[in-house]
Amino acid sequence: TIVFAPSLNGQTITLTSGELLIKKNLTIAGPSDRSLTVSAGGLSRVFEVASTVAKPVTLSGLTISNGAGSGAGGGGIYNAGTLTVSNSTLSGNTSTGGDGGGIQNDGTLTVGGSTLCGNSAGEGGGIFNYGTLTVSGSTLSGNHANGDGGGGGIYDGYGNGTVTATVSNSTLSGNSAQFNGGGIENGGKLTVSGSSLSSNSAHYGGGIYNYSSATLTVSGSTLCDNSATYYGGGIYNMNLGTVTVSGSILSGNSASKGGGIFNYGNALTVENSSTITGNLAPTGFGADVYNLGVLYLDSTSTIGILDGNPAKPPI
């Protein structure tokens, strides 16, 4: 375990010889107020956790900033092992040659009680996940995906069911993507619970973009004031994608079609007292839901304005 001297609180440690490579079980604990910053000065990634690490690595109480990832990605952190990031801040990190401005995960990653803000990458401005990801009690804000893909806040990759992400009791706000998923782009299996997605933006899926064959469950959450230039201000469901909205609220989202949800996918289920009302499609159709696929709507839930295929009762 590495614990820093109190005299370093409020100071910045700037790396001069490249990233810090972690190759064994290790805990690095900064001050509880995150006042110690580890910066790469824009010259390299900050931390890498190697795949050869047999036991978990923990980073806590740190501010990780100005990392610049390339190759494998991960401007702030690249994880190929098992990593927990707790009570930490990742800000101003970029991935110029890869993905995951804040963090790229190819292993098992847990992020708890942390903040990722102002990070950028081609895909996954805040976090790019190609393994197993758990985010709880955290805030992702002002992150940006500037490449051909998306996922301003989080990009959950494509892995035929092997890529999974869980986001709980967290806030994603003000994230943006050049193309898909201002808040989140999902190509795997994603569960969002007890969380808020607001003021995120993209061309498609301002809040969440659910790709073909992906599975998305949104429960006990709120998607408000997200925007898409084209389709799906709150959620865009693509091709063979499956989306379940349970006990959640979508309002104030906007797009040219499907201000709340644009469903072009396999199935959309709205259940358990969900409300999709007060969304906008000022130049198109389906202010609340534009449905070109299959939509199941239970008797406890409400959709204000529905265009396209009519809703069916749940099977």
Task: Name its key features.
twelve-stranded parallel β-sheet, Pectate Lyase C-like, mainly beta, 315 residues, 43 strands, 0% helix
Fold and architecture overview:
This protein has 315 residues and is mainly β. The protein has one domain: Pectate Lyase C-like. The protein is 0% helix and 45% strand. It contains no helices and 43 strands. The strands form five sheets. The protein has a twelve-stranded parallel β-sheet with strand order 1-4-7-11-15-19-23-27-31-35-38-41, with no helix packed on it. The N and C termini lie far apart (54 Å).
Determine the mean pLDDT.
96
List the total number of helices: 0
Largest sheet: 12 strands, parallel
Structural class by helix and strand composition = mainly beta
What's the gist of this structure?
The protein has 315 residues and is mainly beta. Helix content is 0%, strand content 45%.
Describe the secondary structure blueprint for this structure:
Elements: E1 2-3, E2 12-14, E3 20-22, E4 27-29, E5 37-39, E6 47-49, E7 57-60, E8 63-65, E9 68-69, E10 77-79, E11 82-86, E12 89-91, E13 94-95, E14 103-105, E15 108-112, E16 115-117, E17 120-121, E18 127-129, E19 132-136, E20 139-141, E21 144-145, E22 154-156, E23 164-168, E24 171-173, E25 176-177, E26 184-186, E27 189-193, E28 196-198, E29 201-204, E30 208-210, E31 215-219, E32 222-224, E33 227-231, E34 235-237, E35 242-246, E36 249-251, E37 261-263, E38 267-271, E39 275-276, E40 289-291, E41 295-297, E42 302-303, E43 306-308
